[in-house]
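Hi all, posting the design record for the shared folder.

TITLE: backbone redesign
STEP: 1 of 1
STRUCTURE INPUT:
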């Protein structure tokens, strides 16, 4: 292949906690208030990165963001010394304090939407950071996301990192979690499939949980990315499954190259959606998982579709799925059928334990941003984030040195935690060779 897909996994930050901040995310709300283990969360993520790299897949690290975002508390009228602000915020609204501490940038699938150079008019890789305006805690991310991406993809001859879309509901954007790309191989021109939950052409909208992706954002991202409109399909998610906890498309569908695996109830109008996909890309291999085989509720419970569907060096594919799928009879049966079906090029399913992330509402696919790079682009990006055994060892030692193994919501009032995070981020700058990423922020 002339280009390969890199998995940029979000490194779980040291303030990983269970505050239940994400309304509409069933797992997040179910585990609200539980004790978290930031150290275990980060190590689980690193173990997944190491395993994916062992498959021969290109792997990189997306650095965590610095927390807490104290300027957000200032903007909301909190004053005084840091310790006083923390206490006041906790007394008035514990979830507000948890928001400025949130480690949600770990879910890199929401960091941006990416268009490879094979698809863009100028031949550069375009990255549009998500504005994440649907929730307060995630709306704090875009500024640092843009900063991180511009550090990693600094060479403007190869990359264009845009500003996020205007922070309004009209252009609400949740990033690559609502985006799929269909292609014969990663280096050839592909079809960009955008999924939305609300917008001017929405036939219906959810009644229980909010629709996070606006149709108008999808078109804006495609324009910014300089895509050929004939190679874009914009489709509506089923509002009923959003109400069932499918807050992003990657909880109800997954794809890689010319293979798309989706639940029977993925789209608002399945017949129209499938016809549109086939019209745009006749060679698409579309596999539908029936409700009778795996209910929407069980898909949400196990994060079946939030698995990584990966291209292997031998031309086959592999699935990296959450261990919850192995432990669930219907989900495991459907995974086994994908491997057993000869017309589907899935060689194996590998189950990974990322329970700390899962309990907060994100599976294996949530943890990574897919970035297609050719050799010149890969050489032009910042090499310090490229994952290998050496980086695994350094980051594991860093996590063990700097992360707590217990974190309760009340601990967020402790000013010492800020000092711990500052020390951790300064050390991480050195490990990744990203001088000034945090200390100059």
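Okay, here is what came back for every position:
SEQUENCE:
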């Amino acid at each position: 292949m002339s280009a390969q897909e890199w998995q940029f996994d979000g490194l779980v930050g040291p303030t990983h906690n269970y505050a239940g901040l994400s309304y509409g995310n069933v797992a997040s709300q179910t585990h609200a208030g539980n004790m978290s283990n930031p150290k275990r969360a980060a190590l689980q993520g690193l173990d997944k990165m190491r395993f994916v790299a062992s498959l021969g897949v290109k792997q990189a690290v997306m650095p965590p963001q610095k927390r807490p975002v104290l300027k957000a508390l200032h903007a909301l009228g909190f004053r005084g010394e840091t310790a006083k602000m923390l206490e006041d915020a906790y007394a008035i609204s514990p979830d507000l304090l948890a928001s400025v501490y949130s480690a949600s940038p770990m879910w890199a699938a929401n960091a941006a939407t990416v268009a490879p150079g094979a698809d863009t008019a100028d031949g550069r890789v375009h990255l549009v950071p998500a504005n994440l305006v649907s929730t307060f805690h995630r709306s704090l991310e875009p500024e640092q996301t843009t900063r991180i991406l511009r550090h990693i993809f600094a060479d403007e001859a190869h990359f264009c990192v845009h500003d996020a879309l205007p922070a309004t509901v009209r252009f609400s954007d949740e990033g690559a979690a609502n985006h799929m790309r269909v292609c014969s191989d990663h280096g050839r021109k592909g079809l960009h499939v955008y999924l939305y939950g609300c917008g001017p052409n929405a036939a219906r909208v959810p009644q229980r949980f909010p629709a996070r992706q606006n149709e108008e954002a999808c078109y804006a991202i495609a324009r910014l990315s300089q895509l050929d409109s004939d190679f874009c399909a914009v489709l509506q998610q089923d509002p009923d499954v959003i109400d069932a906890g499918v807050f992003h498309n990657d909880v109800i569908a997954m794809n890689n190259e010319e293979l798309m695996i989706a639940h029977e109830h993925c789209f608002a109008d399945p017949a129209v959606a499938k016809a549109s996909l086939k019209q745009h890309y006749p060679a698409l291999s579309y596999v539908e998982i029936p409700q009778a085989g795996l209910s929407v509720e069980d898909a949400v419970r196990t994060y079946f579709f939030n698995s990584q569907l990966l291209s292997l060096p031998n031309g086959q594919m592999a699935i990296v799925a959450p261990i919850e799928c192995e432990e669930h009879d219907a989900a495991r049966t459907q995974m086994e059928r994908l491997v057993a079906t000869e017309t589907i090029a899935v060689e194996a399913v590998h189950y990974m334990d990322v329970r700390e992330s899962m309990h907060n509402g994100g599976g294996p696919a949530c943890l990574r941003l897919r970035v297609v790079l050719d050799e010149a682009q890969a050489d032009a990006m910042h090499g310090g984030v490229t994952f290998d055994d050496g980086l695994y060892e350094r980051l594991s030692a860093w996590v063990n040195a700097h992360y707590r193994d217990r974190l309760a919501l009340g601990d967020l009032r402790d000013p010492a935690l800020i000092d711990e995070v500052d020390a951790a981020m300064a050390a991480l700058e050195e490990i990744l060779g990203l001088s000034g990423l945090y200390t100059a922020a």
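COMMENT: The longest helix spans residues 415-432.
Let me know if anyone wants the other runs.
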